[in-house]
Amino acid sequence: MATPRSNSFKDDEKVSEPELIEHVGAEEKAPTQPHEGHFNALAIVAAEEKKLGTWASVTKYWVVFLWCMYISIGAAIGGYDGTVAGAVISIPTFRQALGDFIDGQYVVSAAWQSGFNGGSSSGGLFGALATGYIGDRIGRRGSLLLACIISIGAIFLEVFFSHENQVMFFFGRTINGFGGGIFTTVASSYCAEISPLQLRGITTGAVNEWIVVGQFISACVIKGTGQLNSTWAYKIPLAIQWVFPAIILVGLPFVPESPWYFVRRGRDDKARHSLDRLIGRTGADLDLHLAQIKETIELEERLAGQAKWIDLFKGSDLRRTWITAMVFICQEMVGVQFVLGYSAYFFELAGFSTSNAFSLSVGTLAIAFAGNFLGIAFTNYLGRRPIFFWGMVACTIDCLMIGILSLVPGTGALWAMGVFTMLYMLVYQAGIGPLAYCIYAEISSARLRSKTVAWGVMINQAFGLLITVINPYLINPDEANLQGKVGWIFGGFGLIFTIWSYFGIPETSGRTIDEIDILFARKVPSRKFHKYVITDADRE
From which residue to which does any coiled coil extend (predicted)? Predict the structure, then answer.
């Protein structure tokens, strides 16, 4: 079992085992025999896991793989809730319940749409940040139990809000967002901790895939119920959310707790028992893996113990912090919230029938699922930088095409906008969607990794909140009423941030953490990362 975080010692001059850099997270120099000195297990386990291919890791560690998939079901809640709340606005009976009668139709005001979406994003932000504290106190399983309780109560508020009571629905969305933030963060942490080296990319990437699954299920449910002429048209989609925490609660007593949690609590016997349940069938040396966990935690404590938040903005770490923020800003400024959160509502306002609007929404998310799968599959083969850059190019062109078609009259142009919306989700999920999470995790220095990750989460949620608040004012008929012309706005921003991505995104594929440290320390331009040849002099 590999470490949840790669280890680099260039950031800490006090580490006295320089030869360890050649072992931990390193490629061809990993030893096959025990290494004298401290941290033997760390090097041995890393060397063993590098011998396995991706499929061999899945077959050998199938128990780990299945538990990761089960825990990640919680991430689907965040995807489902985020999509269904935007989609129910397209249901006439929902708009009648919480909207105002304007120009012959019921419309939920832009202010309340922004409030509903902003409340969910704010809840997700605080839920994600709170998970670090909660997880350290009650573990991964305890965190999931708490999230299930929170989510069940929040869904009750969403389903049974009183007529014209927008505040009740707002609180339901905010609280459910908090629970969703816990679900997603726990899933990512659990997969990173228990997965072996070659399996980690699949299991952590699958967390995002589960989010898309939740979004897809939401669109399918809305398609099936959205045209009902009663309050069940929106109550059924909202109530189906209860299925996800119910599934987790059924299997939660049998989920192995992360051994990392037990080691941090000084309960080595419990940690060994968890390891036995997770990898005992593989014939792995449990004592060796337990020692590897303890050594990794010791290294993290030594490195992180001297790290402060202000260090994110000092020296070479300032550049890393900037890149971490920008990869998520790029996502939002190229229009993902517009395409994903408002596709069905936008198509309906643009002139599609309710049935066709829901069909396009389902098709869009089905393509998003396929795109995310492709992104996970080809990241190691094509590299981070080219996938991210060309993903930005494709998303920008898509937005501009939607803007151009909005000026063309006729149903043919409307359907063409639907096609480009689907294409957008394909290229987004195959490119900048999953790659942002990969890049920001890899470029952070070891001693500031947890703080860099938290910084990335905050930027992601903050800009997501900003865009979701602005979107209704751009789209709604009682506000700017831009409809498809919104594509011009996000296409323009996309062009600006595409240019930045060419100069700002580094290629980290195939680079060990200590090599990435050297590249940043040498101030190598991002576009030259993949060409720079590291010599022995660089390592001195």
Answer: none
